[in-house]
Structure formats: structure tokens, C-alpha cells
Amino acid sequence: MQKANRTSAVLTKLAVVGDLLMLQLVFLVLSIGILTLFPAAFAMQRVVPDAISQERPKLLRRFFAEFRQMMKQHWLPGFGLWTGGLMLAFGISFWAYAAGPVRIVALAILIPLTGMILGLYLSGLAILPEAPATATMKTLFKSANLFLLRRPLPVAGSVVILLTWFALASQVPTLLVVGSGLVPALTAYWLSRPRRQKTSEDVSI
Q1: How far is Cα 148 from Cα 88, in angstroms, rounded to an integer?
Q2: pTM here?
């Protein structure tokens, strides 16, 4: 019986890994177009909990339905996010190799600003699965801001994780193929998990 349970658990984990990699592959294909990048990321975030729980079949069908909805509502804000991210990356790269005291001031502004934007983005992804399908970007922004204010330390840790992964991916570009969509999605999924409440069993006497 125990062997059968272990086999079932292994098969379930393999199914989860397979579904997540399938979502990553579809994300890569859909995000080739600049306008589709963030709608694809939003759609992935809404179906990642189903891929992990294995409670709802027809994952791809739901992903494409979510993607169509996200494209209708958020393609323009998504393009704004892409443009802003590109400008921040260019600004940090430019000032990192510049000279003079202005460089220090510029980086002292740009780096914390990037961290704050990443924190808001991850907070938005964290609340996205539970948000109504018709939620506007303004509503999502307010909810993400509240989430960030309530859980600043976990969000800061998630930003560090994401930046560390980006640093690794810059040295090993193949990591982008495997995790460009999955790493932010799984980081935000972990961030959205409710904190475990301590019980009497956790207190040692």
C-alpha cells in the first residue's frame, strides 16, 4: 500500500512538472509579440494554481481563454509595463558604466525604484488568481499595493529571488527558455500562499 501511495505521489508530481513546462512553452510562443508578453504572463498566473493542484482538467483550454480575456483588457497597460521596464533596464545599464558622482545618484534612485516596481508587479501576480476576470488594471494596482503594504518582507525576499534568477539567466541564457514565465509565476504563487498559523504543536515545552 505504501509503495502504491509513493508511486501515485511521484506520478502526481511528474504531472505537475509536465503541466508547468507545457505552460512555459505556450508562454514562450505567445510572448514573442511585444504586445502579448504581459497578457500571456497574466494568463499563466491565473492557471498556475490549477496546474499545481491538478484539480481542474483542460488546462490549455483555460489558459487560452484567460489569454484572450487578458489581451482584451490589459494589452495597453502591458505594453506600458514593457516600455517602462525597457527604459529602466537601459537607464541602469547606462549609469552603471558611466563616470562621475552623478552616476552614484542616478543608480541610488533607479535601483530602489526598480525594486519597488518589481515588488508591485509580483504583488499584482500574487493577487491575480483570486481577482475577478473583469478586474481593471486600476483595481489590480490598488489590490497589489495593499498586498505589498501588508507583506513587505516576503515581497522584498521575492524581489531578491527574482533578481538573482535574472542575474543567473544573463550568464546562462538557456534558463530563459525554461523559466522566463515560470520563475515569476511560481515566485508570486509562493508569495500568495497563506501564512501558516502556529499551533500548540509548534511550541516546544
Answers
A1: 21
A2: 0.89
